[in-house]
Amino acid sequence: MNAKRYQYSTKSNDFGDTAIFLKKLYAGKIVSEEASAQMIEIMKKQQVQDSLPGKLQYLPDSQYNWQLAHKTGWIPGYRHDVGIFYVREQAFIASIFSKGIDDFVSSQAFADIGMEIFNYMTEKQENNVKTGSVN
Prior knowledge:
This protein is α+β, with helices and mostly antiparallel strands. Helix content is 41%, strand content 22%. The protein has one domain: DD-peptidase/beta-lactamase superfamily (Beta-lactamase), CATH 3.40.710. It contains four helices and three strands, in the order αααβββα. The longest helix has 29 residues, at 103-131.
């Protein structure tokens, strides 16, 4: 394998750029509303599930009504998972990148982050129901 293939480039995307892109995608402002919706549906079918949804994949969809439209990337020493969490009627954009961390450790950390986001969203929603708040 050619080591140069995996060299880190400062010209690559970063988490901020990706979060901005996802926000525009969620708002329907990438190409068109229809194209944005189609891209999100494709992202919901992501088959790599060992990062942000690593712990969530074992929760029953019907009980928690959650989905994650996300895109992953991985090469040795680098991992990213970016996406839009949908929990009931809420959306949350996450853009997580790691560099120089053991692959198993980064995968587990991403799964922990995904679970924390999910817990935050469900607790926020339960608190809003108790107080009558919207959002």
